Each structure stands twice: as structure tokens, then as C-alpha cells.
Amino acid sequence: MPSFSRRTFLRVGGAVVFCGGLCPQSAAAPLVSADLVVYGATSGGLVAAIQARRMGRTAVVLEPSTHLGGLTTGGLGQTDSGTAASIKGIAGEFYRRIHAAYAGTPVTPTSPARFTFEPHVARTVFDAMLAEAGVQVYFGLRIASVNRSGNRLLEIVGDNGQAFQGGMFVDASYEGDLMARAGVSWTVGRESNATYGETINGVQLRSGHQFNFPVSPYVVAGSPASGLLPGISAAPVAPAGSGDGLIQAYNFRMCLTQAASRIPFPKPAGYDPIAYELLLRYVQAGWNGPFFTTHGVGGGKTDSNNNGAFSTDFIGANYGYPTASYAARESMVADHRAYQQGLMWFLANDPRLPAAVRTSTASWGLAADEFVSTGGWPPQLYVREARRMVSAHVMTERNCRGQEPVPDPVGLASYTMDSHNCQRVVINGVVKNEGDVQIGVPGPYGISYRSIVPTESQCANLLVPVCLAASHIAYGSIRMEPVFMILGQSAATAAVLALSASTAVQQVPYATLRARLLADGQLLQWPPPAGPGEVIVDSRDPSVTRAGTWVSSTSIRGYWGADYEHDGNTAKGVNRLRFRPSLPSSGTYAVYLRWTADPNRSSNVPIDIVHNGGVTTRVVDQRANGGQWVSLGSYSCGAGTAASVLIRTENTNGYVIADAARWVLTT
């Protein structure tokens, strides 16, 4: 692992300052002024401050806890990236730096990106980026009050008396506390489908992460008179699509290992096995697991998450969290920690469970070299949603599905519209989970600038890239760490442009903002525009010709454009598809092919590359290297439409995929 600049801290009142390698004398002053004041040291908040510094402005970050980096450094090392190729700008740089940290190589604009990592590696990368930019982070800074003048924020005052003045502000917290203090409109919970013309918002009783065997919800199994077990709602289930104030469950993303140095799961104080009675009954009914995920992130460690009907999500225990006081939130975080630690201890030790379950769980433990100050337990609760702003444009399901593209995108999102369960209910005398939704999107889509700025009359110098304006289900797609970084960079860019023009953030000309975002490497449309000397042909391009039958699909992510096509694993030798570019000039072209990978794909797809010298045949394995441009070699090609790439299917041993082809002029 390469070494980075030494971290420097100083204490100001009750706040601890991370100085990013720079600690000017003003850091100790009772009043701190900066061009941009960022509340929330989440990944999005850190990127916002870095961008402001790169644009020549001063920036500070205020964090109410002692943790830096939010979920990105807090255990979520299996990044929910969606279409990884759509992650650009400083976000893309961060993931390239992750790769470079593991590879021990310098980071460059063309370095590969790595989206799985150990928490301490993510922290090291963020520390280096903050040090290079000279960003100061103040820890333990909880908002006591804000001062305003008309529709503009002037300063944030911490509960230790420390004040921070700024020309512009960014609320990058997961909770939206600054936004609320500033008098900006917000909402919590699930809208009805009717509110924004959606189909998968509100109450959703589905099959995902659901009880697959009947389990009694009552203290005495089968006896309603005995009352309900903990965490089960007595309220009747509302009609599908109804709105309510419920939010999806939170948990901790554990970093686990099977190394000999692992820390055994602790038994929390006040442990009560009744909290896990439902799980015991579920196992007794026939459930054999899995009980949590074990996605590898490197170093023999995992990012472990909720999995199944009864797992690490503490369903129903977070309803008051978004609007609670700091002290009340601490209590809720402690409850979540005790629940999840108790769950792991139960799975590893309760003698009523099968020995195989106990042995398998006990083979895991907390990584001893991660989160050392908290005994290996993640310090950051996964706040999947809290407040959400209401502004001039609220992102909805129709935006996510590509049915209503926004005219003013400031970044792309591409993850599934994803909500974890929101409540446990009783249906016909058995327990059910309600709220889980997992619906894919056709491809990356734009997020409106209007969704990250408040209504101007409410606040003219605040941007909200994390608790942005989105419906519950749209937020379920947008709420991913890379997207928060993308929006954090765009928010800071807009803030600096507004400062330079002495105008409200709502009045920044979109054309000006767009030009600067593109200049700084942000990606604002999908598919991306072709570069100089580059021609991309999607399977839906009019120049594509086919023989046989090809079927459209969006089942496996990583495709280019709106979909990809496959041969149905039938009519081998009959089904063919040809990509034909219109090349701008004669020369040598690097030729690439793209597909989505899966074990059911063919490993022996013949590809004919037509060029000036004739036809060259390559064989590609579509079970691997999905969602990226795979080189087919470099060839001399003439201007016009003579060149082509033909996908054949004869003698192939699985599904054959046709997605897109690419020609890049090299000489």
C-alpha cells in the first residue's frame, strides 16, 4: 500500500479538526469563514469540498460524528455501482485511486477502476485526496442553530459555540439536517403511487426477502391472544400503492473475515433471545439460510449485508430517525447495533439452532484491523433514506425508467430502484415482510439540477446532493455512494459558479454549468457521446443487420444503450448480427466489442472483423469481461461503411449476446 500524507488533527472547542495536511492559524479562531461550507463528511460531502478547492475556492467540511467518508469507508466495500462506466469525474477518480492503492501503481486518467475494497483502504484514499486539496474537516460539529438573511444562509453555529460563515453551503448529510434548519421543504416516507404517477411506490407486498415458510407472529405460536412478537405491526396492511410515513430498514455493513485473528461476535448487553424468536421459528420451519451476505472485498474480508426474510435489517426500528435529535439518534444507532450484534451472536451460539448454522456463522468474525476504535464494528449506520427535499423537480420512477428524461442533468444514476422492507405485518395469521422492491432501470439516466437545489424563495445559496428531491422509489435508485460523489462534485461546481457571478444557485445558467461539468470529466448523457475518431454502433442502430431471430433483454446489467440482444440459445448458425460503422476517415482503427456476461453465455462466440486486409476471425468468451469494451485488435479500415463486425452463432455453447461495437482511430 502506498504511503500518503500524514493526517493532522487539532481540537477547536469541542470539535476535532482534520486539516488534510494544512492547518492554517485561522483554524483555531472562534469564527471560521469559507467560500463553501459543507455539512456532512459523507463521500458526497468530501467530493464537494475537494471540487471547490480544485476550482480555487476555500472549503470546510463539518461532521457531527467522528467518522469520515460515510458508508464508503463505513463497511460498504461492495459498491452498488450500477453501470460502472457511467461513473466519471472525481467519483471515477476515487475508484481509480482504489485500484492504484491495491496495485501499487500511480493513478492516471486511464487507470482501471476498482469498486470493491476494504474500509481502511477507502479511508486512506480519501485522506490523500483531502490532503492534496487542503480541505479541513471539523468532527463532532452538531448544528445548534443557523443564521439567515432573507433567503440566504449566513452561518452555521455548532453546539460548542463554533460558528462557520460561508458564501455557499452544501448539505451532504444522510439526514438533511442543514436543509431542514434552513427552512427548505422536505418529506419523509413513501408517497402513494398517485402522487407522482408511479407504479411501485407506497405499500408493496412482494416476494423479495420474504418468509418462504409459514411462521406464526404471536408470542405463543398460533395464539393471537398472546400478542405479537417484537417488531411486528398490528395495523392492517394498507392497499397496494398507498402512501405512508414508513422508511426502508437500516443496518450496519459488517466487514467480516474468517482469519484466525477475527474478533468473535460479541453478545450485547441486555441481549434477549425473544428478539430472534421469529428467526428461530423460520429455521424450524425449514429455512437453512443464507442469513447474511459475504461479498469479498479484498484481504480475505467481506462487505456483509442483509439477506433474506430475517437478517441484519432492523425492520421497523428507524421510523423516527430522520427527524430525531442527535441524542435520540444515538440511542437508535445503539439499538440497531445491539440488535445486529445480538443476531450474529444468536446465529453463532444459540443451542436451539442446528449445529451447521452455528458452526458456519462462528467461522466468521469481525476484522481485527478494521474499525479498531470501535472493536471492529462499523461506526456508520446505513441510513438508506431519511429526509428528502421537495423542490422544483422531484425525481420519480418515470425519470428512472427513461420515460421522462430531464433537460438539465448534473450526473447519472443507474442502479435498480431498490427499497428494503419497511415493516413486518400479519397476513392470514402468518408474518410477512412489506416494502421490498427491486426493479431494474433500462440504463443510466440523468438527475436534474433542479432536484439538488431548493426553491429559490426558501434558500438561494444551498445545494442538497444527498437528500435531494426524489420520490421514495426513485431515491431507492439514486441513493448510491458513487452517485452522491457525482452530485457532490456538481453541487460544488454550481456553488462556485454562483459565487463568481454573485447570484443564486437557482440562477446559474445550465449551459454554463454543463460546460464546466463536462470540462471536469463529468458524464451527463448515456450512451456517452463518441470521442474524436471514435464510432460506436449500438445493436439498435439502423445500420445493424440481422439474420434469424434476436431477442431484446435488460436482464444482465452493463449493456450499452437501452438494451442488448441475444440469440435465445437457438437457431445456431442461422442467427447472425452485423455491426456496420460509418468511419470518418481511412486509417488504423482499434476495434472493440461489448456484451453482458453470465454463466449461461457462450464461451466460444466467433467474431468476424471485416477490414481492408480481408476478414479476421476472433473467438470471445461471453461468460467473462461483461460490461466493458473488449479489444478485438487493430485493423486498417477505409472511410465509409465497408468495415464491419459480424457476430456468428454456429457451434456456440450458450446464449450469444449482441450489444455494441466500437472503432477508435489510432493512426
From TrEMBL:
Pfam families: FAD_oxidored, Golvesin_C. Keywords: 4Fe-4S, Iron, Iron-sulfur, Lyase, Metal-binding, Oxidoreductase. CDD domains: CBM6-CBM35-CBM36_like_2 (cd14488). GO terms for molecular function: lyase activity. PROSITE patterns: TAT (PS51318). Residues 535-662 form the Golvesin/Xly CBD-like domain. The keyword Transferase does not apply. This is Xanthan lyase. It comes from Asanoa siamensis.
